[in-house]
Amino acid sequence: MTARQSPAGQAAGPVDDGRLGQLLAGLKAVRDGDFSTRLPQVGDALLDEIAGVFNGMVDQLALFTTEVTRVAREVGSEGRLGGQAQVPGVAGTWRDLTESVNAMAGNLTDQVRSIAEVTTAVAKGDLTQKITVDVKGELLELKNTINTMVDQLSSFADEVTRVAREVGSEGRLGGQAQVPGVAGTWRDL
Description:
Elements: E1 2-5, E2 11-15, H1 17-31, H2 45-77, H3 92-123, H4 137-168, H5 185-188
Antiparallel strand pairs: 1-2
Helix pairs in contact: 2-3, 3-4
């Protein structure tokens, strides 16, 4: 046993080395990712307060971990967009982390849905839709590629319509489609 001070700096009862060992074991377990560990209440005001704070912290970590894992699984693995972490009562850095996870999931949801809307419109023959959501990095490259593809499809469709009209309605043979900036199969057509 060792002597201890109360929070007010006054002498308090001795600290049981076994209790310190429990606290150390609990801290190591949490450090190693085990959020099932708990410190028991023992009837000593200070030690019970420490146990309560420790147990509350572990509960908060467990909830935060569960929610972040759920959102990552739903959005990242299952393809269910729109998931948000729900961690009630968080403050400080925990709130910042929760908001960052939710912002990331929200941005990804908006970006993927925008891409899906445009590609669905193209599949239905609507070549007027463009991806307008703000993106960066590789998603910006994808956005630009899809928007360029839509522009080229629209130009190609316009030219095919023009040539068909010249041949079919106006009887002018030998019309050529002119689609600037296309390559590969598009140019061959």
